[in-house]
Amino acid sequence: MLRRRFLTLAAAGLLATGLTAPLHAEENFIVVQSTTSTQNSGLFEFMLPKFKEKTGIEVRVVAVGTGQAIKNAANGDGDVLFVHAKPAEEKFVADGDGVERFDVMYNDFVIVGPPSDPAGVAGSANVVDALKKIAEAEAPFASRGDDSGTHKAELALWKAADIDVEAASGGWYRETGSGMGATLNTGTGMGAYVMTDRATWISFGNKGEYKIAVEGDEKMFNQYGIILVNKEKHPNVKADLGQQFVDWVISDEGQQVIADYKIDGQQLFFANAKPGS
Amino acid sequence: MQTFASVLGDAVALILSGDADLMEIIALSLRVTITAVIAACLIGLPLGAVVGAFRFPGRTLATVLLNSLMGLPPVVVGLVVYLALSASGPLGPLGLLYTPTAMVIAQTILVTPIVAALTRQVIEDLDREYSEQFRSLGVGPLTRIGALLWDARYSLLTVALAGFGRAVAEVGAVIIVGGNINHVTRVMTTTIALETSKGNLELALALGVVLLVIAVLVNAAVMGLRASAARAAYA
Amino acid sequence: MREAAARTEVEDAASIAAAAVPALLEAQGLRLEIGGKRLIDGIDIRIGQGRKTMIMGANGAGKSLLLRLLHGLIVPTAGRMTWRGGPLDKSARRAQAMVFQRPVMLRRSVLANLAFALKVRGLRGPAREARIAEALDKAQLGDLARSPARVLSGGEQQRLALARALACDPELLFLDEPTASLDPASTQAIESLIADASRRGVTVVMVSHDLGQARRLADDIVFLQAGRVAESGPASRVLCSPRSEAAGAWLEGRLFLDGQGAQG
User: Fold this and answer.
1) CATH superfamily of C2-105+170-263
2) Any alpha helices (H) in C72-171, and if so which ranges?
3) What is the spatial distance between Cα B146 and Cα A256, in angstroms, rounded to a whole number?
4) CA of A61: which chain B residue's CA is closest?
5) For residue A92, is pLDDT > 80?
6) pTM of the predicted model, to two decimals?
7) Which of C71, C120, C151 sits opposite B139 (nearest CB)?
């Protein structure tokens, strides 16, 4: 009797968890490999319902670092790549993994810092200059260190400032090896400067006393691109649905949606798809 | 930073709000975790029982292996499952990547060694008590495994709970193979990771409290079952 | 001289009577070595059909080991065993049952403990039900049938263990000090179950420390010392006039310790 009750419970558990039922029914969806910074900004939650309303296509976003997003897409695990690391994106297309790259929008990077401003860079609009000062003061600087688009952009700026951060790694230069949000949490915790995209910063909930120290330099513009993954190389790609998404994002309508997205009255992304492309 | 009391208040408010998104996330967490634990038990219980009850060459090695696998790093499991399920991987054609099924697979791999290793210990202890009687009666190997598992059932509930604890709190593997896709593969732990990365530490912590409450409820339910069945007599 | 001769005659008569019973289980040159130590050292033993054989001896003499060797729970280093003069095969093992000093109870009800053993022995349906009812009745455990076996008292558990062994309808029943930790009433209940089984033709091999029990139950006695048979023969003879020094000393020690054993 007891045994029967036990087995009934186990069976009920199995049924309740739906082991027997298919976990998925819907097929009308695409997977977009994108970045944590885009996801954390909240743009997708604003944008995707509008796309779904129009086309009925569900967009599933996998948000990881740009490096990982590109690798995942190169494995064929995604239909569209939506990231911000232009040279790597162009290589992705050149390797045959992607069909064609389109500019979508840009936002800009900023350097945030503690109120004490140990390197004296607050208010600066010259990023190379500011980085030099930070290195000179050996003020703590928290880097993503994760091969992401933001990390790549940051390294390019250090290079422009002619500073070898690898030598300082572990000292004042600290690589967190994690996403934008995690790096901001770590950086604000240790009183370090952090370079972040503006979108993440505006929507970041744990700012504490931190403020933007460096902003407005053209060198810190952060260009986003969108690429349909190449069906010829990855046969499982839903090219038709993916193409519809790419077309919509760079259409006038999609571009307007991006421009409309605001947090606290601040526009986060500046749509700049080339008309007619 | 808010005080811990206010975080607790947030957590209670979250639960009481019955927010549809939160309920969906909790439901998926439970579905994925419980399915994984059941699958891990289906594999781990017989496996652990065989290693615990039978003497065979390589048994010590099997024991060491099972015990070591308990410490499998979730991220490594996540990567291995990702590589297997990736479109360019051997199981790519199944199209399971970024689905709850993929998360169930990863968690099953994580939980099975725990279930098997703990089962081995439980069954070995029980077998020490039963083995002469069983040999005297002439009990065959299958009946023996069945009887040992059945008689150890209340101890094995605790084993399953240990597996549940590991699975429900796990984030490293499920975020890789699930992708933390909103409304599809977003579970409690990946939501906590996401909210943390957004800097919403209070919300993340409140979600953590909710997760803890769920774990407590599940444990209490299972322990209640155990107690109701004249535990002194059968345990 | 004449007295001695007369006694020998009686003994021989008893021995001849014992030998006349065909052997159910016979072992020759049984030896068990563990870690270079000879725990059982060249034992020849003959279990007469329908007899109650009691294995006695001091602690560590190897009584329980011998019982387990005979029952096949331990594989001997050397020696050979026969069943009714033929090979000791699987069916012979199935015709045996054993009750351990500390009863092994499954974590189930009294009823389920009986049912499990009978299921293993291949009994199904109404035949099994009937056998269970009979066993419960004999062990006087009918009222406790639905209770978890492990909450029973020591005496009840041992009664259940014995009933479970007997329900399997064995030809040969091994008992390893079944009353070692029981009170007199429980001991008596167990002994009467054993005597009853014996009357129905079950052959019994039993390890015991209890001289009184030996007097009440034993037909034959095998006296062990340091893994060897020091003496064996009909109980009436071994208990009254042991030939070996070991058995004699042990019996005297018991008599001395009992204080009242001189009358028996």
Assistant:
1) P-loop containing nucleotide triphosphate hydrolases (3.40.50.300)
2) 90-94, 110-120, 125-138, 154-167
3) 66
4) B181
5) yes
6) 0.82
7) C120
